[in-house]
Amino acid sequence: MDEPSTAAGIMGANVFGPEGERLGQIEDIHFDVVDWKILAVMIGHGGFMGLGEEVDPLDWRLLRWDAELEGYVTGVPLDDEGDAAPAGLAPA
Predict the structure, then answer these.
(1) Which Gene3D superfamilies match (predicted)?
(2) pLDDT tens digits, one per residue of 15-35
(3) What predicted TM-score, i.e. pTM, was given to this entire model?
(4) Which residues contact 80 (CB under 8 A, 6 or more apart)?
(5) How many Å from the N-terminal Cα to the C-terminal Cα in the chain?
(6) What are the CB-based long-range contacts (under 8 Å, 24+) for 26-29?
(7) pLDDT at 11
């Protein structure tokens, strides 16, 4: 599968850690409203059937598409408390 090229295609995409472990999925996208570049995505993880899910921001520049996994891979894992680092929505 090719990398999604629309917001609808990015939403719901799985996010994997550096070892291929599934960390969660993209729940929302934050854009720079001047040039419409993606700044960050919100990664949903944990919980069961939508209950107790945590959502944390992750800088878009830390993700790359992996066609084999059919999802995005980051070298920034979620910690034991479920926080993605670096937290925040730093501009690209």
Answers:
(1) PRC-barrel domain
(2) 999 889 999 999 999 999 999
(3) 0.75
(4) none
(5) 26
(6) 26/72, 27/55, 28/55
(7) 94
Spatial separation of the C-alpha atoms in residues 57 and 88, rounded to whole Å:
6
- pLDDT of res. 92: 36
3 state DSSP class of 55: strand
- Among 60, 63, 56, residue whose Cα is nearest residue 79: 56
The phi, psi pair for 8, rounded to 5°, reads: -60, -35
Higher pLDDT, 2 or 41: 41
What Å distances lie between residue 21 and 3, 43, 57, 72, 75, CA to CA? 19, 14, 18, 11, 11
CB atoms within 10 A of CB 3: 13
DSSP single-letter state for residue 34 = T
- Contacts of residue 2, Cβ cutoff 8 Å, sequence gap at least 6: 67
Structure tokens at 1: 């599968």
> What is the radius of gyration, based on Cα positions, of the chain?
13
